[in-house]
Specification:
The protein has 6 helices and 6 strands; from the N terminus they run H-E-H-E-H-E-E-H-E-H-H-E. With about 190 residues, the chain is an alpha/beta fold. Strands 1, 2, 3, 4, 5 and 6 form a 6-stranded mixed sheet that branches. A hairpin with a 4-residue loop joins strand 3 and strand 4. The chain starts with a helix and ends with a strand.
Length: about 190
């Protein structure tokens, strides 16, 4: 019942105050480990998103087969997987993204999903030029990998307050991202 209430409130916001701006749900409303009950499947919750007028859903990094399954189910309902959230760790040697980044890009190729990267680092402070020297080329490579798979928009940014690249991308003047930055919250809005 909590999910229905949240969706109903957000639907009201769509019609009354946000005009033509599309509202996209976060995966926290559909993943089993975020819920206190087990009787509502992600597919059923995608049905709710469709019913309440959501334009899409953002997802988080999982096994490629699971991501492909949810992306297909969301697309069937007209509520596409608009973005996927990846955690990356910036170390003194590399930007680590996880073992299946390329496979996830392959799974998302038919859907045009934005790639949303949250960079965390205990090695570099925000906007550190030494960290930029490692992060920016790695992010360019990630964007190129997405472009090779015809994922036209690759959004590389961070979740407010957690990452290190948010200040880095703005202070360095580098235009290495493709796409637009999303507003991060339990829901997000795209123009």
């Amino acid at each position: 019942m909590k999910t229905i209430f949240v969706l109903a409130v957000c639907s009201l916001a769509i019609s009354n105050s946000w005009g033509q701006r599309a509202l996209h749900a976060m995966d926290t409303c559909t993943k089993p480990h975020y819920r206190n009950y087990d009787d509502v499947t992600p597919e059923k919750q995608l049905d709710w998103l469709q019913k309440y007028g959501y334009a899409g859903i953002a997802w988080t990094d999982e096994e490629p087969a699971q991501v492909a399954k949810v992306a297909a189910a969301a697309a069937e309902r007209g509520v596409p997987m608009t973005a996927i959230f990846f955690k990356a760790k910036l170390t003194p040697k590399d930007l680590e993204t996880g073992p299946h980044f390329r496979e996830l890009l392959d799974a998302l190729k038919p859907y045009g999903t934005l790639i949303w990267v949250d960079i965390e680092s205990s090695s570099f402070p925000k906007s550190d030029t030494a960290g930029d020297a490692i992060a920016v080329p790695a992010l360019r490579e990630m964007a190129d990998l997405a472009a090779e798979r015809k994922i036209e928009t690759c959004n590389l940014s961070t979740y407010q307050g957690l990452g290190r690249a948010h200040g880095r991308c703005h202070s360095s003047g580098q235009n290495w991202w493709r796409g637009q930055t999303l507003v991060s919250a339990s829901i997000f809005v795209m123009p």
